[in-house]
Amino acid sequence: MKKKVIIFLLVFQLLQAMAIFAREYDEVGDFYEGLAKVKLNGKWGFIDKAKKEITPIKYDEVLLSNFKDGFAIVLLNGKVGYIDKSGRELFYDEMGSPDADGFVRVGLNGKYGYIHAFGKAITPLKYDGVAEFKDGFAVVKLNGKQGLIDKTGKEITPIKYDWINKNHFEDGLTEVSIGGSWSSKGYTGGKYGYIDKTGKEIAPIKYDNPGSKFKDGLAAVNIGGSWINGNFTGGKWGWIDKTGKEITPVKYDSLTNFDVEGFAGVKLNGKYGYIDKTGKEITPIKYDDVSGFGHADGLAVVKINGMIGYVDKTGKEIPNSFRKMPTTGHVLESETVLKSETWDGYYPITPQFE
After folding, report:
1. Which residues of the chain have a pLDDT value below 50?
2. Long-range contacts of the stretch 221-228 (C-beta < 8 A, 24+)
3. Total number of domains in the chain
4. Residue 45: helix, strand or coil by DSSP?
5. Which of 7, 59, 268, 350 shows the greatest Cβ crowding within 10 Å of its Cβ?
6. Residue spans of alpha helices (H) in the chain
7. Quick one: DSSP state of residue 14?
8. Is residue 171 part of a domain?
9. How confident is the model at residue 296, as a pLDDT?
10. 11: part of which helix (H) or strand (E)?
11. Cα separation of 64 and 107, whole Å?
12. Nearest-CA neighbor of 173 among 232, 234, 221?
């Protein structure tokens, strides 16, 4: 019986308080973190459970409805901002949504920076543009140049680049460029290199090709190529490792990616051959066409002077495997290793870089 009386009194007090609030305000929200939003004459503010107004009733809108983690987001005269439980305000012209780690892009008077939800400044509002964080880093723009910051707001690179790969780090490295130009179609031209997560330039800014990501510790680079009608073409290709070392001379007309066996096809002066991941040419660059490794017994098919045959992973041609290319149909079955395979089944390993 005593328990029922206590519950009745609590409910009565709550209803009484709600009635008082309703008489004083046009609308009263639920309490969260000890505070409730209230509306009066078209404006919003917050009160505590003692009915004390902890903010003026002046805001045009409460954007997230309630306080969370000690802050609420409000709109006033076209500006969006934070208020804390003491009523302290922090307003911006623009505000993005918090990312998964609570970082928010904000802008005021044409300058941009980052705050952490809720309210803590990460960078000064000094940049002309800021991108979202990815892999712990964000691209920032100032005076037409770009740089990278980390989540402490530290600039890990000088703000000197004309382009930084916003997709960020592959194998711990990302591309940067200087000297190109921007148009409605994006960024073209310039010279390219790579930086690591400390901002150190690992590969010099001297290559002409964009968009070659590191994979398994290697990236394809080009010198002398250019953009023509939206396509990158020409120049010579080679490979660099994660230290920036050129593991091959930048001399090939085209390259393929390395296959599962660790070999890549290369083209030079109209002829093809293979290299391994150390950059060593395991075959002479003499074939008219080549396939990828990965056939039976780890062999690859090559074409030379109208003949097709096999080479192994050391680059050695398999004895007695070369036969004349058929004009139609299949290679004749015989004692050859090729048996009933057609060249069409192997041709070609399509260059990824040319």
Report:
1. 5, 9, 12, 16, 20, 328-349
2. 221/192, 221/246, 221/250, 222/250, 222/353, 223/250, 226/189, 227/188, 227/189
3. 2
4. strand
5. 59
6. 2-24
7. H
8. no
9. 61
10. helix 2-24
11. 19
12. 221
Query: Could you tell me the two tokens for 5?
Result: 């009386």
pLDDT attached to residue 211: 67
Contacts of 284 (CB under 8 A, 6+ apart): 273, 315
Amino acid, single-letter form, for residue 289: D
Q: How far is CA 194 from CA 172, 237, 251, in A?
A: 10, 16, 20
Q: Which residues contact 346 (CB under 8 A, 6 or more apart)?
A: 291, 292, 295, 301
Question: Looking at 71, 105, 131, which one is the last position of a domain?
Answer: 71
Domain finish residue from 71, 105, 123: 71
Cα 210 from Cα 190, distance rounded (Å) = 9
- Alpha-carbon gap, residue 182 to 246, rounded angstroms: 29
Token pair of 301 as six digits: 């098919």
Tokens representing 276? 């391994």
- Match 């208020």 to its residue by tokens: 83
pLDDT of residue 277: 94
CB 290 within 8 A of CB 277: no
Say how far residue 330 (Cα) sits from the centre of its chain.
Answer: 46
From first CA to last CA, the distance across the chain in angstroms is 88
Residue 17: predicted pLDDT: 53
Query: How many residues does the structure list for the chain?
Result: 354
| Predicted pLDDT at 13 | 52
Quote the pLDDT of residue 6.
Answer: 52
Tell me the two tokens of residue 28. Answer: 């009263």
Helix, strand, or coil (residue 338): coil
Residue 127 located in a structural domain:
no
Bridge partners of 176, per DSSP, are 164, 193
Three-state secondary structure of 98-114: CCCCCEEEEEECCEEEE
Which pair of tokens denotes residue 262?
A: 């660790």
Residue 120: inside a domain: no
Domain that holds residue 65: 1-71
Is 345 part of a structural domain of the chain?
A: yes
